[in-house]
Amino acid sequence: MDGQEEEDLPPVFTTVPTKQKIVFLTIDDGAEKDPDFLRMMSELKVPYTAFLSNYLIEEDYGYFRRMQALGVTLDNHTLTHPYLPGLTYEEQKDEICGMQAVMKRQFGKAPTVFRPPYGNYNGDTLRAAKACGIKYAPLWDEEVFVDHWEYRDWDRSLHPGDIVLTHFRGRDDWDGTMVDDMRRFLNKVTREGYAVARLEDYL
Ligand SMILES: [Zn+2]
């Protein structure tokens, strides 16, 4: 593999360079499909990006079509949420391109943004993603749970341009609803003087 080709691979990043006090909200997987969450986010006009895995959304594509109709960008998070570095190049390509095809069919377009499950990837992941039409592979710098935050950086605080992760989870997975989870996210972000921006607008 020559250097030029490596340079063209989708970039992986946890923060978007900016001086503005903004963060980006990304929500992964798709297990919980809470109508109150859709209502809350649309009433409060909070932008977010959804990274979807087919095995969790195939039982109710309609929920995510409603989300898309509210202006949310739906992105690729593989067909079955595997640990990608444990797979061959061809297997990884099937996971990523397969999800591109599902999204084209169900939501009208194949995304250009992809997040590897668990944030785990190798060179084959990025080469496969590129072959499937992916341009960006954002990870995250902080993760919100319904009862706490987790940080990747030692300073345990938000920075301008940080990407924040949470999950479509409800009472089956943790002690609260999506609405409770969003309340925790918004409380900290607004208390620290940040606004929430749309990731796609800054790529
Ligand atoms: Zn995931």
Give a written overview of the molecule.
The chain has 203 residues and is an alpha/beta fold. Helices cover 34% and strands 17% of the residues. It has helices at residues 3-7, 35-44, 54-57, 61-69, 89-107, 123-131, 178-191; strands at residues 12-13, 22-29, 49-52, 73-76, 137-138, 142-144, 149-151, 162-167, 195-197. The longest helix has 19 residues, at 89-107. 35% of the residues are buried. Strands 2, 3, 4, 6, 7, 8 and 9 form a 7-stranded mixed sheet that branches. It has a two-stranded parallel ribbon with strand order 1-5. It binds zinc ion (ZN). Zinc ion binds next to strand 2.
Which terms would index this structure?
203 residues, alpha/beta, TIM Barrel, seven-stranded mixed β-sheet, 34% helix
Topology:
Layout: H1 3-7, E1 12-13, E2 22-29, H2 35-44, E3 49-52, H3 54-57, H4 61-69, E4 73-76, H5 89-107, H6 123-131, E5 137-138, E6 142-144, E7 149-151, E8 162-167, H7 178-191, E9 195-197
Parallel strand pairs: 1-5, 2-3, 2-8, 2-9, 3-4, 6-8
Antiparallel strand pairs: 6-7
Helix pairs in contact: 5-6
The protein binds zinc ion.
Domain NodB homology: 21-203
Protein name: Polysaccharide deacetylase family protein
InterPro entries: Glyco_hydro/deAcase_b/a-brl, NODB_dom, Polysacc_deacetylase_ArnD
